[in-house]
Write a structure and sequence with these properties.
Structural class: alpha/beta
Helix content: 25-40%
Number of strands: 11
Order of helices and strands: EHEEEEEHHEHEHEEEH
Distance between the termini: 12 Å
Shape: globular
Strand content: 15-25%
Number of helices: 6
Strand order of the largest sheet: 5-2-1-6-7-11-10
Largest sheet: 7 strands, mixed
């Protein structure tokens, strides 16, 4: 298990896209990655768009982001809430400034827009926020997966198998074990 010392943080808020949180979380755990979930409140149950309950391990304030190798932001309507938390924007900015994994899918691009890290990056997202991404300075493409440096982006749930593989591959690359 090459990635067993690797730690990933997923940020959560109500109305996340259920599969876009669950699939990458379990896929990374299969590789031995330590996966934590943080929300505004610790040990709170957040409810996905389709009714899946997920409990946070920590609050945003409890997170020491420098201890993590990456951050994942699921889509759904949660990103519109997540981008309003300075703690979340600070975590994304830290990951970007330290070339650590940032995984975003669907509407999660809104968080990266608010963190102001997309200028000059090639990304994808749900087509519904294509122009938001472009207006933030990104080169937007309609592909199932786009990897630009440490940023891994994907469009929607049907792309999850490619997204999961890309996350694992990028983590292995960043950890120097490809």
């Amino acid at each position: 298990m090459v990635l067993k010392e690797t730690k990933i943080l997923t940020v959560i808020e109500d109305d996340f896209e259920d599969s876009e949180l669950i699939y990458p979380h379990y896929r990374l755990q299969e590789e031995g990655v330590i996966c934590h979930i943080a929300g505004k409140e610790a040990e709170k149950t957040y409810i996905g768009k389709n009714g899946v309950p997920v409990q946070s391990d920590f609050s945003f304030e409890q997170i020491q982001i420098e201890e993590y190798d990456g951050i994942l932001i699921p889509g759904g309507w949660a990103p519109d809430k997540l981008r309003r938390y300075e703690d979340v924007l600070d975590m994304v900015t830290f990951m970007n400034n330290h070339n650590r994994l940032i995984g975003q899918i669907c509407h999660a691009g809104w968080v990266l827009i608010s963190a102001d890290i997309l200028r000059g990056k090639k990304v994808t997202s749900t087509p519904g926020i294509k122009h938001d991404m472009m207006n933030a300075g990104a080169e937007w493409v309609n592909e199932e997966i786009v990897v630009d440096g440490h940023l891994v982006s994907s469009r929607r749930p049907p792309d999850l198998p490619a997204y999961g593989k890309a996350l694992v591959d990028k983590l292995k690359e960043l950890k120097g074990s490809t």
